[in-house]
Amino acid sequence: MLTDLGRDALWEYRSDYTAPADFDAFWTSTLAEARAHDIGVRLTPVETPLQVIDVFDVTFAGFGGHPVRAWLKLPRRAEGPLPAVVQFHGYGGSRGSELEQLHWAAAGYAHLQVDVRGQGGVTPDPAGSGPAHPGHLTRGIESRETYVYRRIFTDAARAVDAVRALGPVDPARVAVTGNSQGGGIALAAAALVPDVVALHAQAPFLCDFRRASLVAGERPYTELTGYLAMHRTRAERVFDVLSYFDGVGFAGRADVPAWFSVGLMDGIVPPSTVFGAYHAYRGPKEIAVWDYGGHEAGGEDDLRAVLEAFGAVAWGGESRGDR
């Protein structure tokens, strides 16, 4: 069943989000602090049974100089500097196994698969936080300085810096991608590092927070509503903090070619919140709308489309026009 507005209403919907006046200054300062630390990229080869892909365990310095882990997957014996894809994973997940997500390297890219700090992988979050609802979404939400996604989005920007520091990579051809939380992180990265070449955001989470708090019936957004139910007088303060991290705000600052996707039966990320970011997106854009898709949106059909789209950007030629 539909979980939100119908198709026609989604095309008409516009978010009420307004960016704070010092949004850009906040992020400029945050990234400057992070970049004061040497990126410190370290690669450790990983033995695998793969015959045509090399895998490395990567560590680089993220927010606060904290170590962030990732997998780097390279097509073996590839010639010349490679285009790169930096990928971010879904909420509560991890970078996964070194034997998963092989399609980008198989397609000829250097693939950096980033582990989000403090979630289900191997990257810790050394920073503490105050009271939070169970889960990750409200961790540190008392202020913009302590909110967990300040650290996570900064890590994402530094992941782009890290992949560009690698010898096999062409720093002028780096794209960002992710699904769900990963899509929201990729959207932020495309705004914070505006010279990436492309963005794919599949069912992006972390967009249009106030709307999501009113219509989402499943986690993780219900962590936010649960927190506000316990702290009834903090709603405006919370949404003021979240205004610095809202994907709609980042969408208005990113202008690289972007591919979005959404499933109209998604009970986790309300489709209207995806359209809120899509409509605000400043650059050339497409969105695949899947009437009977859930949180997977178009699944492998999205993957096929973005492989083709990124290929046109990364390997030369014109990308396809809006569909």
Give a structural overview.
By secondary structure, the chain is of the alpha/beta class. It has eleven helices and nine strands. It has helices spanning 7-12, 23-35, 103-106, 148-164, 181-192, 209-215, 221-230, 235-242, 247-251, 271-280, 300-314; strands spanning 42-46, 53-61, 67-75, 82-88, 110-114, 169-179, 198-202, 258-263, 285-290. The chain has a nine-stranded mixed sheet with strand order 1-2-3-5-4-6-7-8-9, sandwiched between helices. Strand 6, helix 5 and strand 7 form a beta-alpha-beta unit. The longest helix has 17 residues, at 148-164. It is globular, with a radius of gyration of 19 Å.
SSE topology sketch:
Elements: H1 7-12, H2 23-35, E1 42-46, E2 53-61, E3 67-75, E4 82-88, H3 103-106, E5 110-114, H4 148-164, E6 169-179, H5 181-192, E7 198-202, H6 209-215, H7 221-230, H8 235-242, H9 247-251, E8 258-263, H10 271-280, E9 285-290, H11 300-314
Parallel strand pairs: 4-5, 4-6, 6-7, 7-8, 8-9
Antiparallel strand pairs: 1-2, 2-3, 3-5
Distance between the termini: 25 Å
Mean pLDDT: 95
Structural class: alpha/beta
Query: Which stretches are low in confidence, meaning pLDDT under 50 for 5 or more residues running?
Result: 317-323
User: How many helices does DSSP assign?
Assistant: 11
Number of strands: 9
Radius of gyration: 19 Å
Q: Looking across the biggest beta sheet, what order are the strands in?
A: 1-2-3-5-4-6-7-8-9
Spatial shape: globular
The residue fraction in helices comes out at 25-40%
Strand content: 15-25%
The biggest sheet amounts to:
9 strands, mixed
The secondary-structure element order is HHEEEEHEHEHEHHHHEHEH
